[in-house]
Specification:
Elements (H helix, E strand, L loop, with lengths): L4 H11 L6 E2 L1 H8 L8 H13 L4 E4 L2 E2 L10 E3 L4
Antiparallel strand pairs: 1-4, 2-3, 2-4
Helix pairs in contact: 1-2, 2-3
Amino acid sequence: MTDDPAAAAILSLLAERQPEASICPSEAARRLDPAGWRNRMVEVREAAVRLAAAGRLVVTQRGSPVDPAAARGPIRLRRPEA
């Protein structure tokens, strides 16, 4: 997924944080396009779904893991526990 800019942004941000830390998808969207980040949110959420399906990411709501394809509303992204 390194050829996927949204996935790369998500993974890069997570690599910069503590292992247990999470990020907001908007952080990845802002990394891709600081001025037009809102237009990149769908792309970032779709990348999160792919990364979660590959076991490289956990999507949470209110601290609990959720199915990223079914999640509505605010989500957070974190690395899977080792």
